[in-house]
Design brief:
The protein is of the alpha+beta class. It is built from twelve helices and five strands. Helix 5 (about 155-175) runs parallel beside helix 6.
Length: about 350
């Protein structure tokens, strides 16, 4: 499917299912497809991301991934209050990029266009880029420090994994590139290559724990994940914020998307989302099918053990290694900022 028709489907979905809601304050595109031309081919492992801004407090559960008119959409809710300050949006590494371009779907209040005008003219200014890099670094530090050691092991893995992956986002933000989710390691490698700092990349993979893994071993873990994923989809009932990521409509991204990375020779870059999806499956299974959670746990434990993590102590030690690497990561970030010709003073 081409990007243009997929975007048109998203616009129609907003009109049909979101705009009539009493709390609706607007909608806009986000994510890695924003900069693509309408005639670009949308890979089966990609979706069209959009935020629906709502004044409802708290927002209702996000629709998540869904099929509409042949397009795979990822619909999330954003509280209206998060857009109250234009400078706060500009300083937020996960919000600012969405207002860099005019990717607005609907703007009944005019606020989204105001934000676009404010952010787009200041987005590349060095002080604001630096603040967004600091925002990403702060997320690493605070979330690693907040790992709950009494939580189930699969939840501990999630709590360690995502802030560890934000190391990639610090670099992407400095390069003025989209802080993508599933493909963050591949994107970070491209940035490090472009700026002559590829020597840092083995360290990033080392912090994740996958630099020594062969393609065959990663393939084995993906095969095990596929079995766990399919079993989870069959029994999932309790809603989680990530539930739509573990659903039939999400399989082309979670499983086929990871397979495509392995097939392209990017098996190390596939590991992040394999482990993330594994852990989320077990969060669902532990609630909705404890017997399956127990039966399928060895495959998950083996995948995480291959990263050098078999216990809470291992997780905390690795979190400490991530924190210890931040000074080198920050030096590289500053070098990218200094060498980025698109950054203004």
């Amino acid at each position: 499917m081409k990007v243009g028709p997929a975007r048109a489907a998203a616009v129609q979905w907003v009109s049909e299912y979101a705009a009539s809601d009493a709390g609706f304050r607007g909608a806009y595109f986000c994510g890695s497809t924003v900069g693509l031309p309408d005639d670009a081919e949308l890979p089966p492992s990609s979706d069209i991301d959009l935020f629906v801004v709502t004044a409802q407090d708290p927002p209702r559960a996000k629709p998540g991934k869904l099929r509409y008119r042949g397009a795979l959409l990822e619909v999330s809710h954003l509280p209206w209050a998060q857009l109250a300050s234009a400078d706060d949006v500009l300083a937020s590494y996960h919000l600012a990029g969405n207002f860099r371009t005019g990717a607005i779907i609907d703007d009944p209040t005019g606020r989204l266009r105001e934000l676009h005008q404010h952010v787009s003219t200041r987005f590349a200014a060095r002080p604001w880029v630096l603040r967004r890099c600091q925002d990403a670094r702060h997320r690493i530090e605070t979330r690693l420090a907040a790992i709950v050691t009494s939580a189930p092991f699969h939840e501990q893995v999630t709590a360690w994994l995502f802030p560890t992956g934000v190391t990639c986002h610090v670099l992407l933000v400095a390069a003025l590139r989209n802080p993508t989710v599933r493909l963050r390691y591949l994107a970070a490698r491209e940035v490090l290559t472009d700026y002559g700092h590829l020597g840092l990349y083995p360290d990033l993979l080392g912090l994740l724990g996958c630099s020594h893994l062969s393609a065959q071993r990663v393939q084995h873990h993906l095969d095990e994940l596929a079995a766990t994923f399919d079993a989870t989809v069959h029994v999932a009932k309790t809603p989680f914020f990530f539930s739509s990521d573990i659903s039939p409509v999400a399989r082309p991204i979670a499983i086929e998307g990871s397979q495509a990375l392995i097939d392209a020779g990017h098996h190390h870059e596939a590991v992040f989302w394999i482990i993330a999806t594994f852990a989320r499956c077990h969060t669902i299974l532990a609630t909705d099918a404890p017997h399956l959670h127990e039966a399928l746990a060895p495959a998950f434990q083996a995948a995480v053990a291959d990263l050098g993590i078999s216990s809470t102590r291992d997780l905390l030690d690795r979190a400490g290694e991530v924190t210890g690497c931040l000074p080198r990561l920050w030096q590289t970030t500053e070098d990218i900022l200094a060498g980025n010709p698109d950054i203004t003073e």
